[in-house]
Automatic annotation (TrEMBL):
InterPro entries: aa-tRNA-synth_I_CS, Anticodon_Met, Met-tRNA_ligase_1, Methionyl/Leucyl_tRNA_Synth, MetRS_core, MetRS_Zn, Rossmann-like_a/b/a_fold, tRNAsynth_Ia_anticodon-bd. It holds the Pfam family WHEP-TRS. This is Methionine--tRNA ligase, cytoplasmic. It is found in: Cytoplasm. Residues 610-666 form the WHEP-TRS domain. One of its GO terms (cellular component) is cytosol. CDD domains: Anticodon_Ia_Met, MetRS_core, MetRS_RNA. It comes from the Eukaryota. Residues 588-599 have a biased composition (Low complexity). GO terms for molecular function: ATP binding; methionine-tRNA ligase activity. Residues 584-608 are annotated as: Disordered. Its EC number is 6.1.1.10.
Length: 671
């Protein structure tokens, strides 16, 4: 529970739909990012509560139940257990992992609804909705599929297009189909309730948009948007919102808020407690964020001390960018309108998307690694955690790559981090009988410790701003400094010299093992099992696992270490190639160099949409090539990716109506 005088941090991770098996992009987008930050908060000794759970109500569950021939409750039970197992394997350290199908969810959601109703923030209106006459039911969004009216994607859902990301009203779909029977639905009116978001919304009497008897007197302005905007400005000034979260929220406000429907014609959901609507349930995006509160209520009966305590509690929301509007506009508006001293989000942390190789994750096509498959690869959970956090899509989309996973494991983990920690521990065991030697620091040693302290400060600054990926670079920099320090001082040679040399070998070994102990603590948010292994090997006292901004000697002279063994294993090319094929679906084959590709049909010059797509692809591929070169990737791999980049540039030039430049191979000039 929150403690007065302490920093009380409440962390939520976007609730995953219960019927989906999360892929690596889902995992890094919310639960893994939130877990890393929660672990850091605990290392700082901040009073931290980290909650999440499965989002179980709504159309998606009903759809899945129909597909699998089960009841919605059976689907929820089956997939909740699957999610819990996946997150347990990934070492996600929830304080409580719950679910939304609970009595607390009904009680809290209905209370917020009643408070909104009593304050005049709800409207009744007629909604044109698709009805399947074969199934004899109004079709909720996810029971409809068709062509997106914005980008013409042929498999858009009735609520959102997965390709362009835009929200859709199901009746706007072209060529709609009922997902249950594949029949063509018809448009019919049905009554629904709306959250009245617009700014100058005055209560009107009678007809569509009519208020309820509970509403304030006629002509009283309802200022929901006017409450939201100043709250956002204040929160942005004080809190850490990612740039994409601010941009997406501003775009919603710029376009003008509209009333948002909060009810659906479904059976599986939180019942609407109002006459005339008792056959309906709350729409999932009104209902689901309330799950954070109800899940906390299942964790503790004193849940209100977290969720109705903005004076003492800092709230961090973690999610992918497609969830931003619901957490930055709709949910805060509901809580502001309910007017019950709710804790509102202070820091909204949204990632971009993680793609898979050159495409998207797809369970149906067998493309990409999903959470339940990762543990069958033979690669430990902490390696997955490290790689996903290393390429976390913080400022732009990133892509999982098998060859890059091999490269990062073998270079950053095995040769850099693991090599340093293993050598530091082995020197203590081999040269000093397992006891940390006395240290006499020279100016060079103090310079090294100053550099390490600088990296430590940077680590804190970045993680306090939730720049998780960049902070990981600081950890790797410290071990890189350590390896260079050992190479320059060569303690394995000095230990064989005179007394002065042996003393120097002792100092270098003592400093190195102290740095290794620090790395065990800094790694804990990222690789908890590896951190625990280092702690066990070096016998680091548990009370050392509290982080401060200063570098302290946690393993003093005389401290005895345990048995030291390698932390990481090399990944082999044939092992990775087998995994690439296994999870590649239709993308398993390595793309040939552009010169080996058959001539493609030239793009139509002047097509603005194609030019935009190709421009983005050129930028993305260019970044990929630069990253490979920076990481000193093998020349053959770089050449393949450069060939792809040149082909994309050629296609872009043709689309712009220009003559493509002919690339001249670089080489030594003849004298």
């Amino acid at each position: 529970l929150p403690v007065e005088g302490m920093r009380n941090v409440l962390i939520t991770s976007a609730l995953p739909y219960v019927n989906n098996v999360p892929h690596l992009g889902n995992i890094i987008g919310c639960v893994l990012s939130a877990d890393t930050f929660a672990r850091y908060c605990r290392l700082r000794n901040w009073n931290t509560l980290f909650v999440c759970g499965t989002d179980e109500y709504g159309t998606a569950t009903e759809t899945k139940a129909v597909e699998e021939g089960l009841t919605p409750q059976q689907i929820c039970d089956k997939y909740h257990a699957l999610h819990a197992d996946i997150y347990r394997w990934f070492h996600i350290s929830f304080d409580y992992f719950g679910r939304t199908t609970t009595p607390h969810q009904t009680t809290i959601a209905q209370d917020i609804f009643q408070r909104l109703l009593a304050r005049g923030f709800l409207l009744q209106d007629s909604l044109q909705q698709l009805q399947c006459e074969t199934c004899q039911r109004f079709l909720a969004d996810r029971f409809v599929e068709g062509t997106c009216p914005f980008c013409s994607y042929g498999e858009a859902r009735g609520d959102q297009c997965d390709k362009c990301g835009k929200l859709i009203n199901a009746v706007e779909l072209k060529n709609p189909q009922c997902k249950l029977c594949r029949g063509v639905p018809v448009v019919k009116p049905t009554q629904h309730l709306f959250l009245d978001l617009p700014k100058a919304s005055f209560v009107a009497g009678g007809g569509d948009g009519a208020p309820f008897p509970h509403s304030p007197p006629m002509g009283v302005p309802l200022q929901l948007e006017e409450q939201l905007e100043p709250w956002l400005e204040q929160t942005w000034a004080r809190g850490d919102w990612t740039a994409n979260a601010r941009y997406i929220t501003r775009s919603w406000l710029r376009d003008g808020l509209k009333p948002r429907c909060i009810t659906r014609d479904l059976k599986w959901g939180t019942p609407v407690p109002l006459d005339g609507f008792r056959d309906k349930v709350f729409y999932v995006w009104f209902d689901a964020p309330i799950g954070y509160l109800s899940i906390t209520a299942n964790y503790t009966e004193h849940w209100e001390r977290w969720w109705k305590n903005p004076q003492q509690v800092e709230l961090y929301n973690f999610m992918a960018k497609d969830n931003v509007p619901f957490h930055s506009v709709i949910f805060p508006s509901s809580l502001l309108g309910a007017d019950d001293n709710y804790t509102l989000v202070n820091h909204l942390i949204a990632t971009e998307y993680l793609n898979y190789e050159d495409g998207k994750f797809s369970k149906s096509r067998g493309v990409g690694v999903f959470g339940d498959m990762a543990k069958d690869t033979g690669i430990p959970a902490d390696i997955w955690r490290f790689y996903l956090l290393f390429l976390r899509p913080e400022g732009q989309d990133s892509a999982f790559s098998w060859s890059d996973l091999l490269l990062k494991n073998n270079s950053e983990l095995l040769n850099n981090l693991g090599n340093f920690i293993n050598r530091a521990g082995m020197f203590v065991c081999k040269f000093f009988g397992g006891t940390v030697p006395e240290m006499v620091l020279t100016l060079d040693d103090k310079r090294l410790l100053a550099r390490v302290t600088l990296e430590l400060h940077q680590y804190h600054q970045l993680l306090e701003k939730v720049r998780i990926r960049d902070a990981l670079r600081c950890v790797l920099s410290i071990s890189r400094h350590g390896n260079q320090y050992i190479q320059v001082n060569e303690p394995w040679k000095r230990i064989k010299g005179d007394e002065q040399d042996r003393q120097r070998a002792g100092t270098v070994t003592g400093v190195a093992v102290t740095m290794a102990a620090l790395l065990a603590v800094l790694l804990q948010p990222y690789m908890p099992s590896v951190s625990a292994a280092i702690q066990g090997q070096l016998c680091i006292p548990p009370d050392c696992f509290v982080l401060s901004h200063s570098l302290t000697c946690t393993l003093p002279p005389g401290h005895r270490v345990g048995t030291v063994s390698p932390l990481f294993q090399k990944l082999e090319n044939d092992q990775i190639e087998a995994l690439r094929k296994r999870f590649g679906g239709g993308q398993a084959k390595q793309a040939p160099p552009a010169s080996a590709c058959p001539a493609a049909t030239p793009p139509t010059p002047g097509d603005p949409q194609l030019i935009q797509v190709l421009t983005e692809e050129v930028a993305k591929q260019g970044n990929h090539v630069r990253q490979l070169k920076a990481n000193k990737a093998e020349k053959a791999q770089v050449d393949v990716e450069v060939a792809k980049l040149l082909e994309l540039k050629k296609q872009l030039a043709l689309a712009e109506g220009k003559t493509p430049e002919v690339s001249v191979p670089k080489g030594k000039r003849k004298k």
